[in-house]
Amino acid sequence: MGRYKFANGSSFVGEYKDDFKHGKGTFIFAEGDKYEGQYFKGRAHGTGKYTFKSQDVYEGEFKDGLLHGKGVYKEHSGGEYSGSFQNGKREGKGVYKTGNGDIYSGDFRDGEMTGIGEYRYADGAIYTGEMKEGKANGHGSYKRPTGQVLTGLFEDGELQHPS
User: Measured between alpha carbons, how far is residue 96 from residues 8, 11, 83, 162 in Å?
Assistant: First the structure.
């Protein structure tokens, strides 16, 4: 167990092995971020909790210092993502709940809602189908709160070619 204060104001308290942070520890960054969790050869690796200066919080798996594996990211604004991460970005299957009550469940690619999914709006509307960068894009159906269903090809969130 050791303690180290860096010249830039950051600090680390935790386990070391061969002069690397290794095992359990807490790193407080000079700019206000904080990581508590497991380290491997100097990097966040395994399970941990990262609290951002903005007060967003990620709890889950890390690999080589990045969010990687299963985890939950809670935004200070009320949004929450639960699912897979790869190389620091949302990737694979996940559920994102916005601060206003919308819920998306489906595929994520490169941090964006992209692939197949279902987006449930707080007003009761539901879109099911292909998504690209957070918008309905491709084949899908949109059920309005009134119950009316629109099916067809969507582009940039708008129905372009009804079926």
Answer: 36, 33, 9, 28
Under the banding of pLDDT at 50, 70 and 90, the label for residue 1 is confident
User: Which of 105, 113, 103, 155 lies closest to 134, judged by CA?
Assistant: 113
CA neighbor of 58 nearest in space, from 39, 40, 84 = 84
Tallying the residues shown for the chain, one arrives at 163
pTM: 0.93
Which one, of 86, 114, 74, 96, lies nearest residue 105 by Cα? 96
From its phi and psi, is residue 81 left (phi > 0), alpha (psi between -120 and 50) or beta?
beta
Give φ, ψ of 157 to 5 degrees: 85, 0
Each residue's pLDDT tens digit, 11-30: 999 999 998 999 999 999 99
